[in-house]
Amino acid sequence: MIPVRLLLPIDSAGTSAACAAAAFGLAKRFGCALEVLHPCPPPAQRLPYATELSPVYFAQLEDVARKQVDEEERLATDWFEEALGAHPDVKADLLTVEGLVGPAVAQRAKVSDLTVLPSIAAREDGMFEPARDAALFHSGRPVLIVPDEAGTPIGETVVIAWKDAPEAVRAIAAAAPFLEAAKRVRLISIAEDGADEEDVTASAMTGYLAMAGLPVEMDTVPLGEREVGDALLTAAGSGVLLVMGGYGHWRWREWVFGGATLHVLRNTDVAVLMMH
Question: What is the pTM of this model?
């Protein structure tokens, strides 16, 4: 299915150059609309909580917060107009929503085919952490994670990180527009403890994709002493689109013990299409 709309969340300073290039480039390639979303906390959510504040002082603080909101919206508009000027053949609109980042991103991501966000290494500050969480966990839609090193075009070679889990299957389905246009498709399976069952399901998925006419090949990669995320990124190589399921374990477990999803979000140097 050809994408209808892509979502690009930004803060008042925009987003990373690589992320913007990816979003505008994909909108042009697929001939779809691009919605640039600027979620902006309203004045009331910027005020310190204190019951002893006088009404006059509270009103003054609210006025300062309102000016901050107006300035952030102006900066976001300036960034958007500059980005749009560099891509005049893309149909793009700016939507500013005054509210919490998470709910705003989740709501708009639900009615978009793909949300484009920078990797943790590219933009960890400000609104991007809650934006990534909202898009991954609360939209039911795929997310494209773009590091600074990602080049364009994205997806000439697609690498599927296979795991016998629903998240991986959802990611493959979400990657259909990229798979259909790819010149090469590799399905890689990380062999943990010599598990034969994973090889069987990897072979079955490879056969399924081949039946769809995709130029797919399968690789089994020994884990060795490495972490899964490190093995995935090493096996994927450079200049590819990595397709993988996100947070197959509970998120708190990855925060505490580490995991493939968090490792990839922090360390990837290739674009990653991820689906929870």
Answer: 0.89
